[in-house]
TrEMBL record:
Domain of life: Bacteria
Ranges where the Beta-xylosidase C-terminal Concanavalin A-like domain occurs: 305-501
Entry protein name: Glycoside hydrolase family 43 protein
Region (Disordered): 198-225
Molecular function per GO: hydrolase activity
Hydrolase recorded as keyword: yes
Keywords, ordered alphabetically: Glycosidase, Hydrolase
Entries under InterPro entries matching the protein: ConA-like_dom_sf, GH43_C2, Glyco_hydro_43, Glyco_hydro_beta-prop_sf, Glycosyl_Hydrlase_43
Family annotation (CDD domains): GH43_XynB-like (cd18617)
Family that this chain belongs to: Belongs to the glycosyl hydrolase 43 family.
Pfam family, one: GH43_C2
Length: 509
């Protein structure tokens, strides 16, 4: 059995391909660098990040010029053809649609080759004779197709409009497949919120005419009490045993109505059956399900603790907008991550931040920091306008909160010079009331974030502050990302000895 999501935390718009017994999957990453996290699996359930497709400054006009929160890199597609891996993607803040290619999935990936097509969510599909089709969500809405030369990005024919769903809003995320005697066009429609759904059509030719599946939308959790919501943006893959599976995005909202999600849109896996007429049949996405046939290939978890004694940063570390050379070092003080401030505030792009996605609703993050004469700490962020942090500077530890136009120092306490332990614990029980004086109960948000100085387990220790987590949710902050918990420097140079992310078992309900 496997539990959904198969890749938790902010890993939206998954696209998957299989080469022999190996699966590869990429997700959107928006304004974060490196871009397009790339995962490998041998069983569709256990995924290990093996890198990022865009991990060289030269591959991205950095800092993503004029990028904004939830801008940058939208939905990618990964395919394998003619012995090469291909990823097609959209940088909505710099150049639009582009292709990168690689001999090996671990890379190196090529520099981007621009495709002269507007719109988002590009896909790649090849006919037997090598004709390459790029379906995408057109700028005027609707699904478009064009014939392209993938080596040069040149548009050879089109674009022209094609089948665009059942009439729900925002038809997008097209993927074209040749399965048996049919061409299938899979799309998302209804918008990536609670109305998200998966629809499909088929034709004898990539040019149509298309016949919509009688059961469209084939998958939607809209209007249900299912704990997984916003299901959509799917990609199909066939396992070596002939069974079919679908990866797609979903969210796990919590809290009182309207419930909100904090982990971003995550990657889920669901089985696909086919009916006697050659149409896929999709049940609601299961929370737990029998795993695809074949061997079980667990992969090592991302280590809970990073002591920063490796020569390079692990691929799961991300930075908003850019990670300028000189803003970080693993070598100046071996065994330490040194962060050097590149901007004075977390409230606008252009600051030094290195974080990892929050992947569990209940978790604890601790960093050992020596601020020296600088200023830095531990931050839980959605974007520049929605973040909570605990920081050390000038002999003091402080908790600060930024919620939209409001910025407040919530707590402060003297602190000795030298290494300090800063912790954030995130819990989904015993939540702080929506506001002081209101009893807990009907107005609770999704979780509570408590910020600590020293060891939270010390008997006499109390959090410096406890803050309502609803303001660090996607529904409040808006956009396409989810929480990232990281280390930062906003003055001088700050040394981090280690960073530890520990999932806390969800309290039994
Ligand atoms: C993506 C579009 C969508 O390009 O949201 O969920 C956009 N679907 O397909 C960003 O994720």
């Amino acid at each position: 059995m496997y539990d959904n999501p198969v890749i938790s935390g902010f890993h939206p718009d998954p696209s998957v391909c299989r080469v022999g017994d190996d699966y590869y999957l990429v997700c959107s990453s928006f304004e974060y660098f490196p871009g397009l996290p790339l995962f490998h699996s041998k069983d569709l359930v256990h995924w290990q990040q093996i890198g990022n497709v865009l991990d060289r400054p030269g591959q991205l006009p950095l800092p993503l010029p004029g990028a904004k929160a939830s801008g940058g890199l939208y939905a990618p597609t990964i395919r394998h053809h003619d012995g090469r891996f291909w990823v097609v993607n959209t940088n909505i803040d710099g150049g639009g649609n582009f292709l990168v290619t690689a001999e090996r999935p671990e890379g190196p990936w090529s520099d981007p080759v621009r495709i002269d097509l507007t719109g988002i969510d590009p896909d790649l599909a090849w006919e037997e004779d090598g004709t390459c089709w790029c379906a995408f969500s057109g700028p005027a809405g609707g699904i478009n197709m064009a014939r392209i030369d993938p080596a040069t990005g040149k548009v050879l024919e089109g674009p022209f409009p094609t089948w665009s769903g059942t009439g729900l809003k925002f038809p997008e995320a097209p993927h074209l497949y040749r399965i048996g005697d049919w061409w299938y066009l899979l799309i998302a429609e209804g918008g990536t919120e609670r109305g998200h759904s998966v629809s499909l059509a088929r034709s004898r030719s990539p040019r149509g005419p298309w016949e919509g599946a009688p059961g469209n939308p084939l998958l939607s959790h809209s209007g249900t009490s299912h704990p997984i919501q916003n299901t959509g943006h799917a990609d199909l893959v066939q396992a070596p045993d002939g069974s079919w599976w679908m990866v797609l995005l979903g969210v796990r909202p919590r809290g009182f109505t309207p419930d909100v999600h904090v982990l971003g849109r995550e990657t889920f896996l669901t089985p696909v059956e086919w009916d006697e007429d050659g149409w896929p049949v999709l049940a609601p996405v299961p929370e737990r399900h029998a795993a695809p046939g074949g061997a079980w290939h667990p992969v090592p978890d991302v280590p809970a603790r990073d002591d920063f004694d490796a020569p390079a940063l692990a691929p799961h570390w991300i930075s908003p907008f850019a990670r300028p050379e000189g803003s970080w070092s693993l070598t100046e003080r071996p065994g330490r991550l040194l962060l050097t401030a590149t901007g004075p505030t977390l409230d606008s792009p252009g600051h030094t931040f290195l974080g990892r996605r929050q992947q569990h609703h209940d978790c604890r993050v601790t960093a050992e920091i020596d601020p020296g004469t600088g200023r830095g700490g531990l931050c839980v962020r959605l974007d520049e306008a929605h973040h909570y942090e605990v920081e050390a500077a000038d002999g003091e530890v402080a908790v600060l909160a930024r919620i939209g136009p409001l910025r407040q120092t919530v707590a402060r306490r003297p602190a000795p010079a030298g290494p300090l332990r800063l912790t954030v614990t995130i819990r989904t029980r015993d939540l702080v009331p929506a506001s002081p004086g209101l009893t807990d109960g009907g107005t609770t948000g999704p979780d509570t974030l408590a910020f600590w100085f020293g060891d939270p387990a010390a008997p006499d220790n109390r959090p410096l502050a406890e803050l309502d987590g609803r303001y660090l949710s996607t529904e409040v902050a808006c956009g396409f990302t989810g929480r990232v918990i990281g280390m930062y420097a906003t003055e001088g140079q700050v040394a981090f000895d280690w960073y530890e992310y520990v999932p806390v078992p969800a309290p039994s309900s």
